[in-house]
Amino acid sequence: MTPHSETELSDTIQGANGPLRITGGGTRPIGAQAGEVLSTSALNDTTLYEPGALTLVAKAGTPIGDIDALLAKNNQRLAFEPMDHRALLGTKGTPTIGGVVAANVSGPRRISVGACRDFLLGVRFVDGAGNIIKNGGRVMKNVTGYDLVKLMAGAYGTLGVLTEVSLKVLPSVETTTTLTLDGLDDAQAVKAMSAGLGSPYEVTGVAHDPSTAKTHFRLEGFAASVAYRLDALQTHLAGFGKGSDTNTDWTAIRDVQAFAAAKGDVWRISVKPSEAAGLVQNLGATAVQYDWGGGLIWALCPEGHDLRGAMGATAGHATLIRGTGNGPAFHPEPAPLAALSQGLRNRFDPRGILNTGIMR
């Protein structure tokens, strides 16, 4: 089923007799999804773009590539640099803005500017009863009452099917460079990354690759500012070794391309950076990558290995991004939070038909 309008989507959901599997471009499936496929790909258009107001409104099925191209004409960009999952998951199709928002997909720049949900100004969606709902607007101050805008970002289509999103965009940068430190072990790297993020030099990306023992610090902005901050950051991090100015591929870091051709399951772990290195030692992973200064760990594991048991009392959560596994893709929620989540699903999807079973 591929509705061509919001009204048609509403009618489709109202008339559904069973579970619906919501897709956009079909590039980032997650969990054991059941039901008839309902695609938003035909809801494809940028309905408003005001470069001077840094505002963009697009229908959910609009390809990210089209949005990037439109913004580039005015030297602007999606600041949260959403990940492209196709290489890692081996999927085809085209990533869409609705899928990005539904999964709150955010890249390395999240540590400096925020996540996708932080740039979301408004949404339109159809809930599980077929009601058309609008929340938010085109500026931050338009959000009143319950903030359904933030609620829909990261709900993975379980509360409603997005039809349109309003986003704040930001200017592109003149220059990008990366300071790279060599030879640090994981614990040292996390300390260095924390030091870089705690500095006043506006680091916009911090990642560590244990396989190469390279730790990367990205700087962006006007050329003169970047040059000054690069020198200052090198001095600031001198206790961790002498760094070098490198041309690092941040797209490869963002998309975890190092794991794309490797066999095994891929887990995405959110954790306090101070606990990251110690946790990795107990995961049973064959390879890991650190992003967000250690707050995000990508772990490659043998097929069927559920590493969540190894997390113990560590504060954080793990999501199975690639692989089948023996349980739900998402980390089990504490009982009070699970009750709240179920209450929301009961309210927005009383028949339990939207992306059934993804979040259990």
Mean pLDDT across every amino acid position: 91
- What letter string, H or E per element, gives the SSE order? HEEEEHEHHHEEHEEEHEEHEHEHEEEH
How many H/I helices?
A: 11
Provide the spatial order of strands within the biggest beta sheet.
3-4-8-6-7
Strand tally, please?
17
Shape: globular
Q: Into which percent range does the helicity of residues fall? A: 25-40%
CATH architecture of the domain at 6-171: 2-Layer Sandwich
Task: Provide the CATH topology of the domain at 6-171.
Answer: Uridine Diphospho-n-acetylenolpyruvylglucosamine Reductase, domain 3
Radius of gyration: 21 Å
Give the distance, in angstroms, between the N- and C-terminal Cα atoms. Answer: 25 Å
Find the structural class using helix and strand composition: alpha+beta
Overall CATH class of the domain at 6-171:
Alpha Beta
Question: Could you name the key traits of this structure?
Answer:
Alpha-Beta Plaits; Uridine Diphospho-n-acetylenolpyruvylglucosamine Reductase, domain 3; alpha+beta; 26% strand; 17 strands; 11 helices; 25% helix; 4-stranded antiparallel β-sheet; 360 residues; 5-stranded antiparallel β-sheet
Description:
The chain has 360 residues and is of the alpha+beta class. Among the domains are: 6-171, Uridine Diphospho-n-acetylenolpyruvylglucosamine Reductase, domain 3, CATH 3.30.465; 175-254, Alpha-Beta Plaits (2-Layer Sandwich), CATH 3.30.70.100. The chain has helices at residues 6-14, 64-72, 86-89, 97-102, 110-113, 148-152, 186-197, 223-236, 250-254, 273-280, 335-348, and strands spanning 20-23, 36-39, 46-50, 55-59, 76-77, 120-126, 132-136, 161-168, 170-171, 175-182, 203-209, 214-221, 244-246, 265-271, 287-291, 296-301, 316-322. The strands form 5 sheets. A 5-stranded antiparallel sheet has the order 3-4-8-6-7. The mean pLDDT is 91.
